[in-house]
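TL;DR need structure tokens for one chain.
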Amino acid sequence: MTANIILCADDYALTPGVSAGIQQLAETHRLSATSALVTTRHWHDHANALRELRQGLAVGLHFNLTLGAPLGPMPWLCPTGTFPALSAVVRASLARHIDGTEVAAEFTRQLDAFEMALTAPPDFVDGHQHVHALPVVRTALLGVLKARYSGRALLVRDPADSAMTIMARGGAAKKALLLATLARGFGDAVRAAGFSANTSFAGVSAFDRSKSYRAELERFFTRASACHLVMCHPGHVDDELPTLDPVVERRADELAALAMLPDLPGRLWHAVRAADGSVRWPGTEATHD
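>> reply
TL;DR here they are.
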């Protein structure tokens, strides 16, 4: 059970407190991976720490279309220069009212910013609020990845799981089912493009502080498949976080639980790099052999 659970902390570089919390967990082997927001003002400064942690930590791009501003002009999606709310992006994607060429250009800029700071390609790609799996956006993203990283052992997060598994885990099942519906078919599209995708997914939370995150995490770890990805959102609370995040205190709860769970490091998959610097993901070896 232990070697196939990928625990990924989202939102690295969101704020100094979030990055510090993720660094703390990574240094004590309590994470498998982290995905970085390269559109924030903290990215270049915070990227330095990731260079030191990459030997045992997978580091990915957290593609952003809903927080702050893009790295370049996006007149169709962002006529004011600021990303719209998630609800607007979802509606536009479902109606196919998004310019795929514009999305591809911004994805390319964010990949460039990642590689410039880390001097390496991302080990995986996911999306802030899962925008990467939405219609139109997913097509643009996979097109860029095929042109840029064909043949590389790169994983793209599939934020869906089966309805039966989601219901069995309990918790924020309605939220997870909605996400799975929006992401339907995405994992198959990723594999058809020549990349790896996780084969099960958990971590969708209602961020209810009245309930134990440790108990929630144990549910997330159940029904794990050969490549089981669990997202989390730990971080220290700082002055900037409340202006960006509606679930501020829950990040501290997650950080505390992950820092104290005694057997956590041994239950997780940890990155081992191939000669070319890429990561070999659990349950996906046959894809690239």
